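We modelled the chain as a single entity of 152 amino acids. Its sequence is:
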Amino acid sequence: MIILETLLSFIATFGFGVIFNIHGKNLLFASIGGAISWFVYALSLKFALSVPASMFIAAVAFSIYSEILARKLKTPVTTLVITALIPLVPGSGMYYTMYQVVTGDVDKALELGLNTLASAGSLALGVIFVSTITRRYYSVKLKLKNKKKLEN
């Protein structure tokens, strides 16, 4: 079942990539990022992790993929990150939260809203975590390279 869901995530991400005007091999690699994000998320859920924890792990995975690939393809990281994020966006959580508000079940709406917020926050934290580490790594690498040039 995870393989089918991963394939469908690839197709959905491909469609969004077309809408976002991504072309050529970048579209293919962006779609693979979406498939990776869903695969890691579904696999994390199989290991009985919570939804927010699974979202965080998936965000870290697709962010690492995007950071590495963006440098190889010489394309902006955001192009790859945003498309890889598409399968994990908690849109249904917002829908059901609003539905519960409209039907008057405030307790259920609050529960769903907090879960949705936790999921969205986990995605954001995962992306920020990898982005920060990557920027720091390349900053230190550049400083060492410049220092070595000055010594020669």
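As a brief sanity check on the tokenised model: The two ends are 58 Å apart (CA to CA). Residues 2-151 form one domain.
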